[in-house]
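Students often ask why we bother encoding 3D structure as a string. The short answer is that it lets us treat folding as translation between two languages. Here is a chain of 430 residues written in the first language.
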Amino acid sequence: MNRFVSLGVFLIIGIVASAIALRSAEHLSIHAGKHAEKAVYYCPMHPNYTSDRPGNCPICNMTLVKRERKEESGSMPGMSMPEGSTVVPGSAPKVFTVAQLMAMKPGEICLLHKCKMGQCMLAMTPEFARLGKCPHCGEDLGVIVKEALPQGYAQVQLGAEKQQVIGVKTALVQKMGLAKTIRVSGRIAYDPELYQAEEEYLQAAQAFEKAGTADPEIKEQAAKLVDSAKIKLRLLGLSDSIVQEIEKAGKPDRSLLYSDAGGKVWLYAPIYEYEMPFVHVGDTVEVEVPAVSDQKFHGILRALDSVVDPVTRSIRVRAQLENPDGILKPEMYVNVMLQTNLGEQIAVPEEAVFATGEKNIVFVVKENNVFEPREVGLGAKADRFYQIKSGLQEGEKVVTSGNFLIDSESRLKSALEGAGSSGGGEHSHG
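And here it is in the second language, the structure alphabet:
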């Protein structure tokens, strides 16, 4: 009997000891969990990176921020981000799409960063949204922007061997002085109609002067004749400065009918309407005459016609050339080169631009042999370079050879992902 009593006592003591140990373990686990929560640090610029100790982010060297318990109820660093979204750092990061940022007005995004100019209040343009820079002082706003790729494209990864096989070549995006050259065929002017219009204008101007003391009605009629003759000169292509020169000379320009040695002649040359933004009064003109080898003539562009030709969609430019030896004759055909300086511009070789018909795509070389498709806005084409208005930054590296095959890889990967055949990540070809 005593043996059974002793066994029962031992069992009771064992149960009590187990309960105490379990309670103690739960307490230690809860305490350890709270301690672990307090020991988590994250990078405001790269919220997906976390650490159990203070320090600096290995990506951007920014000081890690301690994750507070109150952040648990809100959006936390490391949360999943929709494609093409932006994280605005703070106690509770907020997600915006790039389109939403661009649509915001000044003042709707504030307190992003204390820059040298104070608290920035701004609306993000596509360029500043992509760079995360303050438009006022250029300081980093601490904004991470993940741009959406062009529709129908995806990033691809190509190993060094695959790049060599398809002949991939690259070039840097750089700022350079661009000069656009327009080459057209022109002719030395023979224009009796314009000569006659100049004569009529001078006669109308003389009649108006004589009507100075005449009846007001006669004077008004004379003024109308002057205006009508001047409008006709403008429609025929003369600028106000050329009209003033005719007034000062007091006679029409006879070089419109024939040329003299040591004098000047007029050059007429058509340019297409899309070339008009690159041509300005005062630009230099260089002329070669097929009938005269190894000799060039120079002049200044003086005027552009006021009306576009509805058939050829072109506009006539008018330049005045020096004719020292009288070689240039009316109705003589010449080769014309118009050159305009575009200044320092960000540019890429023309081979880097892959035109799809709807958009212009370049492939930017990223780390780990990743090729990122990027839609760009193009400006002028100057010789063998394209001016870049948007989409690229100086110093980036773009593909200049092998674009076609990379484009095919990018489109194929995008199509497979759209069909649910790809689980994400980089499309790798070794």
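Translate back mentally: The longest strand covers residues 333-349. Keep this in mind for the problem set.
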